[in-house]
Specification:
Length: 154
């Protein structure tokens, strides 16, 4: 019982008493970078950074790396999307050409079958015509030779 009453009192105190935060406002957010010479009072020669400048350098280093990574990821995703678009376009073109070629091959095969059936129905047996034509040409040549021989003997 004692623990429950303490927890209730502490909860009420935390809810109803406002928290006060003490913070100091910084007037100069640029920070200061000061070079240090050999005879100046400091533990080493170099550049002295105040806390704002040091925080800014650290944050710039951290976020510039993150920014570079994000820019690289953006360019990579843009390039991947561009290549995927080209690939999809080529695939659609290929599919269209394949469909067209398949339909042309089907039409060609149907025409071949139709022409083969037509040839089977009407065979082209012209042997009697060849015989009659050969006989007529032979007679004409013989008559021509005979007239040439008669004319030559005159």
């Amino acid at each position: 019982m004692w623990k429950k009453s303490i927890s209730v009192v502490l909860s009420l105190v935390m809810i109803f008493l406002p928290s006060v935060a003490a913070a100091q406002e910084i007037e100069n957010l640029e920070g200061q970078i000061v070079p240090i010479e050999k005879n100046d009072p400091s533990p080493f020669t170099g550049i002295l950074l105040d806390t704002i400048a040091a925080a800014k350098v650290t944050a710039d280093k951290k976020y510039s790396l993150l920014k570079s990574k994000l820019e690289l990821d953006l360019k990579l995703s843009q390039q991947a999307a561009e290549f995927q678009l080209k690939l999809d376009s080529l695939q659609a073109s290929f599919d269209g050409m394949k469909t067209k070629t398949d339909s042309l091959i089907l039409l060609r095969d149907e025409e071949i079958v139709r022409l083969q059936n037509l040839v089977k129905e009407n065979p082209n047996d012209y042997t009697s015509w060849w015989f009659a034509g050969g006989f007529a040409i032979g007679v004409a040549i013989s008559i021509g030779i005979f007239f040439a021989a008669v004319e030559a003997s005159k």
